[in-house]
Amino acid sequence: MVGGGWRWALTVSSLVDEELFLTGFAERVVVLVVGGGGREHALCNALQRSPSCDAIFCAPGNAGISNSGDATCISDLDISDNSAVISFCRKWGVGLVVVGPEAPLVAGLANELVKAGIPTFGPSSEAAALEGSKNFMKQLCDKYGIPTAKYQTFTDPSAAKAYIKQEGSPIVIKADGLAAGKGVIVAMTLEEAYEAVDSMLVKGTFGSAGCRVIIEEFLEGEEASFFALVDGENAIPLESAQDHKRVGEDDTGPNTGGMGAYSPAPVLTKELESLVMESIIFPTVKGMSKEGCKFVGVLYAGLMIEKKSGLPKLIEYNVRFGDPECQVSEAQAVIKENTIVQQTQQSASVQTPSTQNKFQGPESIEEDLFGENVGRLFTVGRLPTMYWIGCIYTSMCFVIETVLMVRLESDLAQVLLAASRGELNNVSLKWSPGSAMVVVMASKGYPGSYKKGTVIRNVEEAELVAPQVKIFHAGTALDSDGNYIATGGRVLGITTKGKDLAEARDRAYQAIEVINWPEGFFRRDIGWRALRK
Question: Which GO terms describe its molecular function (predicted)?
Fold first, then answer.
């Protein structure tokens, strides 16, 4: 150790290149991760592997994070109180804050931290409008030529219905603002589309979040998730990943926050990745900068690889790590139904919403982390005809982030610090070879109603059954006897690595067989799209 906060590591090259800051002088740092779900557990685990991390705090954290030793959980820190978070950072010498959930972001936590001089990985409240307002995102796409589904925005229900009649079904209706993972409806008939419009614009189902609707063409193709790290001007892609949204095997039943994911995803070839960066990510980053709200953080793009053209189109953005992906990358949305997104100012032709939401605190995490309130709107017999699918890009993220984080070999703390300082042009990422997979164990009944407080046994034993097994906790707590109990819909993410996807899959299901949780369930076909090819 030299100079208290710096260390020297010999480099194999005397050249000054993009790897130097990772292999030469590495700044020691104390990190605070804000959040308490599966995404945050995956982030803490990746940061714990970072050579430059002196300490990791997680607020509020969860039982799995605490017991695993991946971070010190600060359950009594009110993350909705920006001044309290800043005071904590100053007291404990925190040199990097990583904000997981979108609620603190849209409430301006990153703004206040940056103003206080604390390096922060996460966008400002203005930049978070990319997720907070679908109309804002669509206008940005229009202005900067970013490919997306054809759409129109409406506040008048009669005009909206006339447009639906003109376009026909199937068609997609979206509430403009954040709606607790329930604001997107795929209507398979005109009648369903009309009723969706009435629910938002007439009945006010989503309050202010649904006072304006986006009516969008239905895209047919294969969905994929794409992550890029952004420092305001530069962007670098993360590895590809793909998730499984439907609750049932063979991709049947209602959509969920994600029942599993894997990385890499064959659907996202290197050629397609380059196309996504050039046609979607870079124009977004440059557009946000021109609009006066530079984006710093992770852009999580929900894509549709169109069947008819084979080209990617942007469905929606998240402004943070996702969840199942984060475990195979990481993330998890914590948003309550009273989130209010109101439009205030406009910058050029793009309107920027302000927010008046209040993050509900740690007690709300297990209930909304994975979009457990998402379910079927209507059914015909036993088959759903219309789904609330907002959870696809607001709550499912933890699965993808999980698989990405377990594959990342770079020093995550230094990478995120570079992003917070506008220095990503000096960074390249290293990934482990092979594949990673996460299989989600959920409470029976999810995404509908489910029982809480059921006991889960043999979690630690399951991590020992095969190499490269890690279990991330999303909705657990400890009972008075020290047993893990389920507190949410999606509860555990069983995450594995292997030389290929088949080996990663086999290890995941071996671990699941050890876990004793009669009240839980999981899909047995995660990875089927890639394994069949």
Answer: ATP binding; metal ion binding; phosphoribosylamine-glycine ligase activity
First to last CA, the chain: 50
The per-residue pLDDT for range 143-190, each reduced to its tens digit, is 999 999 999 999 999 999 999 999 999 999 999 987 655 688 889 999
Token couple for 54:
């002196």
Burial grade of 137 (CB within 10 A; 0-12, 13-18, 19 or more): buried
CA nearest to 42, candidates 98, 125, 84: 98
Q: Which residues contact 413 (CB under 8 A, 6 or more apart)?
A: 29, 31, 47, 50, 52, 53, 96
3-state DSSP: the chain helix, strand, coil percent, rounded to 5?
Answer: 30, 30, 40
Q: pTM here? A: 0.78
> What pLDDT, on the 0 to 100 scale, is given for residue 397?
58
From CA 463, how far away is CA 492, in angstroms rounded? Answer: 12
Backbone angles phi, psi at 60, to 5 degrees: -80, -15
128 in helix, strand or coil?
coil
Using omega within 30 degrees of 0 as the cis cutoff, is the peptide bond preceding 264 cis? Answer: yes
- Reduce the DSSP state of residue 86 to 3 states and report it: helix
Quick check: bond before 266 cis, omega within 30? Answer: no
The CA distances from residue 406 to 326, 385, 401, 429, 494, in Å, are: 9, 37, 9, 13, 12
Identify the CA nearest to 398 among candidates 454, 473, 497, 509.
473
Determine the Cα–Cα distance for residues 501 and 116; give it in Å rounded to an integer.
Answer: 45
- pLDDT for the residue 128: 84
CA gap 415, 417 in Å, rounded: 5
Strand arrangement, sheet containing 455-456: 455-456, 484-486, 476-478
Give which of 519, 531, 493, 381 is closest to 40, Cα–Cα: 493
Strands ordered across the beta sheet of 221-231:
235-237, 221-231, 296-306, 312-318
| Residue 38 CB-density burial (10 A; 0-12 exposed, 13-18 middle, 19+ buried) | buried
Element (H, E) at 222: strand 221-231
Burial class of residue 533 in the structure, from the number of CB atoms within 10 Å of its CB (0-12 exposed, 13-18 middle, 19+ buried):
exposed
Which DSSP letter does residue 485 get?
Answer: E
Residue showing tokens 């439009």: 343
The strand pair at 29-35 and 96-99 is best described as parallel
pLDDT at 334: 24
